[in-house]
Amino acid sequence: MKLWGGRFSEGLARDAWALNASLEFDQRLGPQDIRGSQAWARGLQKAGILSADECAQICAGLEAIGKELENHEFIFLETDEDIHTAVERRLGEIIGPLAGKLHTGRSRNDQVATDLRLWLLDYLPELEKAIIGLQTALVTRAEKDMNVMMPGYTHLQRAQPILLSHWWLSHFWPLQRDRERLGQLAQRVARLPLGSGALAGTPFPIDRAALAADLGFDRPSLNSIDGVSDRDFALEFAFCAALTGLHLSKLAEAIVLFCSAEFGFFELSDAYATGSSLMPQKKNPDVFELTRAKASTLIGYLTGLMTTLNGLPSAYDKDLQEDKVPVFNAFDTLTAVLPVLANALGSLSINSGRMQASIDVSMLATDLADYLVEKGIPFREAHEAVGKTVQYAIAKGKSLDALSQAEFQSIHPKFDQDVYSVFDPANSITRRSALGGTAPEVVEQQLQTAKEMIGIK
Ligand code: ARG
């Protein structure tokens, strides 16, 4: 069925029809389309356009279609251009010509914008749940690996010793912000375009505030032209998804690296590693590599949608039909990756001996400078002295803790016999006890706060 055949004497060419049709991807909006239409029918009734009986018939017919869709009994026809057309066509089959009254004062332009918003409001919580799943895996790891020390890196160069738990939790907070962002996005999604008509508004006395409440929106949009063309929410969703992708990718990359023989910090479980068709010894981190690649694909969805929106003429343009593809794909990508990543993290084994052995004494150079600071030396002078000490040790082919006290004193007189107490990585870690630091007691607090954020006591 075509919804716009009246002014045409010839049908749309087959190839143009195929290009124009969006049913393939927008049938996913079926349940939202039904709900939106039922609310619209109620709105029309309140406005005196439909009788109570007509409204009831339309709503019941739509309800039956909803069931058909749910049970996969709905038969789509080749002539169904999109989900909106399909539902209206089927409504006519079920309730007869009365179906023709449903589209009064409404356009597919405000209808589709409403459906996509409804879909996001329905599915954002599911994405949040998947993110919480990974946050839970990180928290569980942090708890389990609490006493493991590791080298912390900047520029991928050994920097300072840290707790592995602190590192795990460093991947928790970005996800927390991602969830915050989704919550803020939901507020902007919850503005109802329905009642904007094609672009100029609806001429019937529809109470749009009541309509918004009926559909669970916070309020109606206030400009009909903006109402039908605003896709900021879809773009924001694509951004949120891409950013979460980046966060996952950063974590995945670290795991790929730490699983290499050169690092040897982690070992993949068999269940989350793959083999090589040629090299029998290989255990490959495909799950983590694919996570990295999915992030790139998510950036592609964002870029694609942003480019689609760039420079569009006012109000509705058919380009907007393409908005659903990146939104659905981004959602599907993340909800596929997140649980696998969570499980894979849980099944990693940790080589704590190797991690600890990789903390070399030079990583305590900052602590050595801090030692002088505690003896009253200005930090800049202490930094210089320790730099000289490092240089001296390298020249002598010794590690810092192998220098004699006389050698230390020759560089700075404030190096006393107690200087050797600095060369314990556990001390270095424990000293960093200001809020947010790597000391066990504050990491423990951090862990508690993190657990509260995801509803675990
Ligand atoms: N399938 C269309 C979409 O997804 C519905 C809106 C069609 N509007 C129109 N003016 N042709 O955007």
Quick take:
With 457 residues, the chain is mainly α.
What do these coordinates show?
The protein has 457 residues and is mainly alpha-helical. It has 19 helices and 6 strands. The strands form 3 sheets. Strands 1-2 form a two-stranded antiparallel ribbon. α11 packs antiparallel against α12 (286-309). The longest helix is centred in the first third of the chain and has 37 residues, at 108-144.
How would a crystallographer describe the biggest sheet? 2 strands, antiparallel
Strand order of the largest sheet: 1-2
Main structural class = mainly alpha
The value of Rg in angstroms is 31 Å
Order of helices and strands: HHHHHHEEHHEHEHHEHHEHHHHHH
For the residues shown, what is the average pLDDT? 96
Bound molecules: arginine
Number of helices in the DSSP assignment: 19
β-strand percent reads: under 5%
* Distance between the amino and carboxyl termini: 56 Å
Low-confidence stretches: none
Secondary structure layout:
Layout: H1 14-20, H2 23-26, H3 30-46, H4 52-70, H5 83-95, H6 108-144, E1 149-154, E2 157-163, H7 164-170, H8 172-189, E3 191-192, H9 208-214, E4 219-220, H10 224-229, H11 232-258, E5 266-267, H12 286-309, H13 324-346, E6 349-350, H14 352-357, H15 365-374, H16 379-396, H17 405-411, H18 425-431, H19 440-453
Parallel strand pairs: 3-4
Antiparallel strand pairs: 1-2, 5-6
Helix pairs in contact: 3-4, 3-6, 3-9, 4-5, 6-7, 6-8, 6-13, 6-19, 8-11, 11-12, 11-13, 12-13, 15-16
This protein binds arginine (ARG).
